[in-house]
Write a structure and sequence with these properties.
545 residues; alpha/beta; 6-stranded mixed sheet; 16 helices
């Protein structure tokens, strides 16, 4: 099917100003059509905010968003707990309830109107769920019993049924396993009248036909997928760096010329004063000559100052177009468990909601062992981490951690803290406010971000803050549990997290669906959970550091 370039969404002069006065973007113009479009950029650049504005769920400060077709939206952090069951989570709960009441014989005229044209919705939704890998999932299943990946599949399956809607999807691949991401990529390519995908996932972005990059100097559009965008961005950055080098060289030349001119003027002024003293002129004439000389010198000084300001402004403008990656550094306070010391004991462990055919889990972790925890969506990976951390009780068996444990959950929860700075001070009360600000800055959070409410942070910003808090808790953790720490964050932050975890001296269990991320962590083994059992593989990617 040919792709139409008729605009489904037309964005005109869009500006948004945050409560703290920052303006992530202003006077932004954009047209979205049937092309599969990816939106990327650094954490905190405003991608999620732009997605919400495009979807019409948030009002802009200035500008307009015109929808030629209806728009449906999947936020980055949907509140799954706000929906009671799968039917409601799919976004079709109201119609399904109307159909149920009509079938039971006590429907209303409003139910008839709501169900009109949707009489086969239950069957279509069940088919969409099966296509999403959730075969035979009852629509009455409680949402709280779903894993993050299963909940995402349910919401996406509901969105695909809105075949006449333009879809805005904010980081939908975060909790999906490999099969789920393949399914998502296929459905995005097939959906008309188009999809805007906000993501850092390279495999998903590579399936796009257009990439939008939201940078500090605005929104840039590139044809092709992720690799084409990387090539375009590298060329653009090279040109921007050359322009910056040229501006800096011009500033140095200009300043040397201005200094030479100043020195010559000073020399001429000194010579004039010396000549005046030797010429026997009347004092009144000498005073007038001095006033003229000082006036001329002042005018020259103001002109030189203006020229210096202009040269400096050219350098600032050129520097703003060079998207230099901010340095990101996490302070790690791990205490290394002695070699051979027992860190974790799992004995005949049965997890809540574990498949009946899965045998109990028995495992011993010693020293600084480092495991990848893998498996399909819904296999129980998050439940196992919460059980180890003491947040969830097993159905049977024993789970005992013999060392201090720190857990980073999928939702990167900051507790009851009003902002990231307060969360870090609560995690480590020995920190001064100045030291806490420094650590947050080193983790890539600026002065505005650290005092914003958690709900106003980007997913990547919240993850960085939550990870730093987990690492800073007392007593010093010796076993670190991470549930998909590579979600939400941009490539620069992923590099920083990889570096942190490679240098982590304690024991480690990390969940991720991204094989390249796991392979970068120097893990000593992999624990794979399956419906029919579990399998431990040692020496996955080499020895721990």
């Amino acid at each position: 099917m040919p792709v139409s370039t008729t605009a489904s969404v037309d964005v005109r002069h869009l500006t948004c100003t945050l409560p703290d006065g920052q303006t992530p973007f202003h006077h932004l113009n954009l047209q979205l059509d049937q092309r599969a479009t990816g939106l990327t950029g650094r954490n905190g650049s405003g991608k999620s905010l732009l997605a919400a504005l495009i979807a019409g769920v948030s009002p802009p400060t200035q500008g307009e968003v015109h929808h030629a077709v209806p728009v449906a939206y999947l936020p980055q952090h949907p509140d799954v707990t706000a929906t009671p069951d799968v039917a409601a989570l799919s976004g079709h709960g109201a119609v399904l309830n109307a159909l149920r009441r009509l079938e039971e014989g006590h429907g209303t005229p409003q139910d008839v109107e709501r169900a009109e044209g949707q009489w086969d919705l239950r069957e279509r939704l069940q088919h969409a769920l099966s296509d999403a890998g959730l075969r035979d999932l009852p629509l009455a299943t409680a949402s709280r019993h779903l894993s993050g990946g299963e909940a995402t599949r349910v919401m996406l399956a509901g969105l695909w049924l809105r075949s006449d809607h333009y879809l805005v999807l904010d980081e939908p691949g975060n909790h999906l396993d490999a099969a789920g991401r393949d399914w998502l990529r296929t459905r995005i390519r097939q959906h008309r009248p188009g999809v805007l995908l906000v993501s850092h996932d390279r495999t998903l972005l590579d399936g796009m036909t257009r990439i939008l990059s939201l940078d500090s100097d605005g929104l840039h559009s590139f044809s092709g997928g992720y690799q084409a965008w990387r090539q375009h961005r590298a060329q653009r950055q090279q040109a921007a760096q050359q322009a910056l080098d040229h501006a800096r060289a011009a500033k140095r030349r200009g300043e040397r010329a201005l200094q030479t001119e100043h020195d010559r003027q000073q020399h001429r002024a000194a010579a004039g004063r010396h000549k005046g003293r030797d010429s026997n002129q009347a004092q009144i004439l000498l005073d007038r000559q001095k006033e003229r000389s000082e006036g001329t010198a002042g005018a020259h000084q103001r002109r030189r100052s203006a020229q210096r300001d202009a040269l400096a402004a050219q350098v600032r403008d050129a520097a703003a177009r060079v998207a230099e990656a901010p340095g990101i550094h996490f302070i790690s306070g791990a205490a290394t468990p002695p070699a051979g010391r027992r860190v974790l004991t799992l004995d005949q462990l049965v997890l809540p909601h574990s498949p009946p055919q899965r045998p109990p889990l028995t495992l011993t972790l010693t020293g600084a062992q480092r495991l990848a925890l893998t498996g399909d969506n819904g296999s129980g990976k998050s439940t196992l981490l919460r059980t180890i951390a003491g947040q969830c009780q097993p159905v049977a068996g024993q789970c005992s951690a013999q060392v201090p444990v720190a857990l980073l959950t999928q939702d990167q929860h900051l507790g009851d803290a009003t902002h990231a700075l307060a969360a870090l001070l609560a995690a480590d009360p020995t920190l001064s406010i100045a030291d806490a600000r420094t650590r947050l800055a080193q983790a890539g959070l600026d002065e505005q971000a650290i005092v914003r409410p958690p709900a106003q942070l980007s997913g990547g910003e919240r993850l960085k803050a939550a990870l730093l808090c987990a690492l800073s808790r007392a007593p010093t953790p010796q076993l670190l549990l991470l549930d998909e720490p590579d979600n939400h964050i941009d490539p620069d932050a992923i590099d920083a997290v990889e570096h942190l975890l490679r240098s982590w001296q304690g024991a480690l269990i990390v969940v991720s669906h991204a094989r390249p991320f796991l392979e970068a962590l120097a893990l000593t083994g992999e624990l794979a959970l399956h419906a029919g059992g579990w399998q431990l593989t040692e020496h996955l990617t080499g020895q721990a550091p």
